[in-house]
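Chapter summary example.
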Amino acid sequence: MPNKKSPNKSVEFFFDIVSPASYLAWTQIPKLEAETGAEIIYRPMFLPGIFEKAGSNTPITVPAKAKWIFEDFKRFAKRYDVPFVMNDKFPLSSVYAMRGLNNFRDHSSFKKLVDEFYKAMWANNEDINDPEIVIRIVKEAGIDPKEYQSAMNDPDNKKALMDVTQEAVSRGVFGAPTFFVGDEMHFGQDRLDFVVEALG
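The structure predicted for these 200 residues follows.
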């Protein structure tokens, strides 16, 4: 039986739509919530900005590691029983998607919006920078495309995404997904068991 929400239990989830590991972690968030009763605090960030500021880089820069890691993602997708296809536009920029998500993180349709972006990117092999696809995603999430477009171009929202990204780096984040339970950091979708342990 699911635990009740506890104000003393929370997990910060730093993620980016273009991260396949973040997608796999996202699919397991409902299970994490049910098992622990924890509140999930969603922190959309800009992964390329993380790489630049933290001096890190994507695993695909090492060909052998890139080949291995995507096979590993397929194994986890099979274990989780979720769809996963390697997007043939990868790598691509997520800056517009993440600006929108950061702006709508308190919106009632936020989770649906994230779901639709992830489905487009990692289940349907779509270009999340294609305006027509973005309009469809936003509409399916129940958000006005004009409102979303305005948010993406708002200077304050541009700065807000940069601020979250800088905060993440200052706290030791170097990739996605990254979880925090208090000050304790856990990196990677395959470390969710440690997140559960940290929640006690």
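To summarize the output: The chain has one domain: 10-199.
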